[in-house]
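Structure first, sequence second, as always.
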């Protein structure tokens, strides 16, 4: 093509090539760019990298049309590949299904011969074989033991279970199915028949006749004050109000003269603990710090309700709260509970019934009593024993002596947090027992020998002697209730040692009162442990002996464990509740009930200290119909 600008400044002959002026050269260059302009299709491809905010309306419409075509083409390719794969799989199954079945059956028969004594292994193998042969997830049926193990794993860590399930190494039930099993039992306030049916089913798997005897352990936990609406079918209920049953509500109405609703601030949890180790949380109630009369009604309803399932409550175990102590005194009226050996009549069966205070709370109270004891006039205690005084400073002095004198301390577990207590540290059981056990007694004896030869004052020496005498008896109590060996006879030497501790405790009280007749009652009480602590210790020492006696009278094969008989079971439930609903806050009552099922399914119904198979101990309950909730 020839190019000649209107502003051309040169005239050349036709035979001259590649010669042109500047204006003509510019025209030729610009004409070439316009002729090589991209087509509409190419310009659409360039829109992929152009921001929408910079596009005009035509460009936006063009890009939208292009994306629609791309999506349609992708779906067409996907459908083509799917049909191709399905045809290949169908061809594979038709040709090779018979051969694979023969191979699998041969392996199965070989494994059956090798694992014929391993029932659980055979159940797993058989479940995997049936799952592989099923047409889909809806056609799979699972053995109860498989569901039991999967439920236990899933409730502890759903993410870990899903990781194992999606790994492809095993075919396992879905989380949705496990959730239906978990929610098959409704955890409502009060006594539920479904819970009793579940409890009876678990007991039948492992318990003998003596295993149905035990006690009721109860305690309260603080929850968030909150009201929520809960839909059940066509009904809508208000959850979060105090609910201790109709009898308790009627009694409060008669006393107060008005019928009023109150938002729950605590939850009362009841757990049955059998003598053979069977444990089951069977009821919980939303409360506002339950009082003794309400507790009286609810407790004996629980005893009667358990009897329907064949469980016999022989004792009650609780901590030393004021309401619990008043509840116990209600059964003795004007009588002395110590002289009655903390034993009354069961209102349901008219058999002997024992009240027993939790040992670990008592050990913390003993430690707290020592901590409050000092020579200061502002201290609430100035414990006197013999010619000396039991002082917190004596424990500190023994600790510093141990740390500064020996390259390897006598009491290796003793740390500064044992002596510099905070409200949180005061709740730790081992920080109390470490200051009251045999090792502490050995350290105090060594410290007493050290100061006797180093010329310490007579007063300080008498104080260390008093501390050593005190530890002689507290270490015996700690050792007895920490001993895993079971009690099978009322003549057990450990019970005799408890009797000596009880006699020492009562004699200490008599000596202080007789040796200080000139002092008023307040001054005398300052020299002793508090009345509440002495009451709780007597209940612990006398009550446990009565529990052993009554249990052995009912069944020759019965035995009782002091290590298990305490409130730690309920405290563990409370810790798991906080862990499931946020460690830094207490749960709402609407969260408390569903979490109980997860706690039951996530642990065994009996402790590991027995010869029952582990899988058989895992809780599992299959009602007539599974309902997702």
């Amino acid at each position: 093509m020839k190019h000649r600008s209107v502003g051309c400044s040169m005239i050349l002959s036709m035979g001259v090539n590649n010669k042109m002026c500047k204006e003509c050269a510019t025209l030729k260059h610009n004409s070439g760019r316009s002729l090589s302009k991209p087509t509409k299709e190419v310009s659409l491809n360039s829109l992929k990298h152009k921001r929408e905010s910079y596009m005009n309306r035509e460009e936006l419409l063009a890009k939208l049309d292009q994306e629609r075509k791309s999506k349609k083409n992708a779906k067409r390719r996907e459908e083509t590949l799917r049909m191709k794969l399905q045809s290949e799989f169908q061809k594979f199954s038709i040709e090779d299904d018979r051969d694979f079945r023969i191979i699998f059956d041969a392996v199965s028969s070989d494994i059956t011969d090798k694992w014929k004594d391993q029932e659980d292994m055979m159940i797993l193998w058989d479940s995997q074989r049936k799952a592989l042969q099923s047409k889909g997830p809806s056609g799979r049926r699972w053995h109860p033991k498989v569901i039991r193990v999967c439920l236990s794993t899933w409730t502890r860590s759903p993410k870990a279970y899903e990781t194992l399930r999606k790994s492809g190494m095993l075919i396992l039930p879905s989380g949705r199915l496990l959730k239906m099993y978990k929610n098959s039992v409704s955890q409502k306030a009060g006594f539920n028949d479904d819970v009793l049916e579940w409890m009876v089913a678990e007991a039948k798997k492992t318990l003998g006749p003596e295993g149905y005897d035990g006690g009721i352990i109860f305690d309260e936990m603080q929850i968030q004050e909150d009201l929520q609406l809960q839909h059940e079918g066509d009904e809508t209920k208000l959850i979060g109000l105090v609910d201790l049953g109709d009898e308790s509500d009627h009694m409060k109405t008669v006393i107060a003269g008005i019928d009023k609703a109150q938002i729950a601030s605590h939850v009362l949890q009841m757990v049955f603990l059998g003598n053979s180790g069977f444990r089951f949380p069977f009821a919980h109630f939303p409360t506002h710090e339950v009082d003794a009369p309400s507790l009286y009604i609810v407790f004996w309803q629980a005893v009667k309700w358990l009897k329907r399932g064949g469980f016999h409550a022989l004792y009650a175990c609780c901590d030393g709260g004021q309401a619990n102590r008043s509840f116990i005194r209600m059964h003795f009226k004007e009588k002395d509970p110590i002289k009655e050996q903390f034993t009354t009549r069961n209102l349901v069966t008219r058999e002997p019934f024992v009240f027993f205070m939790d040992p670990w709370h008592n050990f913390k109270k003993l430690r707290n009593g020592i901590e409050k004891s000092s020579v200061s006039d502002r201290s609430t205690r100035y414990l006197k024993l013999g010619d000396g005084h039991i002082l917190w400073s004596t424990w500190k002095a023994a600790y510093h002596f141990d740390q500064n004198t020996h390259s390897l301390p006598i009491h290796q577990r003793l740390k500064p947090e044992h002596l510099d207590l905070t409200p949180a540290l005061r709740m730790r059981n081992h920080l109390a027992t470490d200051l009251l056990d045999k090792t502490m007694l050995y350290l105090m004896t060594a410290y007493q020998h050290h100061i006797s030869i180093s010329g310490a004052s007579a007063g300080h020496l008498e104080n260390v002697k008093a501390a050593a005498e005190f530890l002689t008896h507290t270490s015996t109590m700690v050792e007895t209730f920490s001993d895993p060996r079971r009690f099978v006879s009322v003549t057990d030497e450990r019970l005799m040692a408890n009797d000596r501790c009880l006699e020492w405790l009562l004699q200490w009280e008599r000596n202080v009162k007789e040796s200080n007749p000139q002092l008023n009652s307040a001054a005398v009480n300052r020299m002793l442990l508090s009345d509440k602590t002495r009451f709780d210790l007597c209940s612990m020492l006398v009550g446990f002996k009565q529990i052993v006696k009554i249990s052995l009278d009912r069944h020759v094969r019965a035995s009782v464990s002091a290590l298990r008989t305490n409130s730690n079971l309920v405290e563990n439930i409370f810790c798991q509740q906080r862990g499931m609903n946020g460690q830094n806050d207490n749960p709402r009552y609407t969260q408390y009930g569903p979490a109980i099922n997860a706690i039951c399914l996530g642990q065994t119904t009996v402790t590991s200290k027995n010869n029952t198979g582990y899988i058989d101990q895992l809780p599992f309950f299959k009602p007539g119909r599974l309902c997702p909730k």
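Margin note: The beta strands are 213-222, 228-232, 235-239, 266-274, 279-287, 312-318, 343-345, 352-357, 383-385, 388-390.
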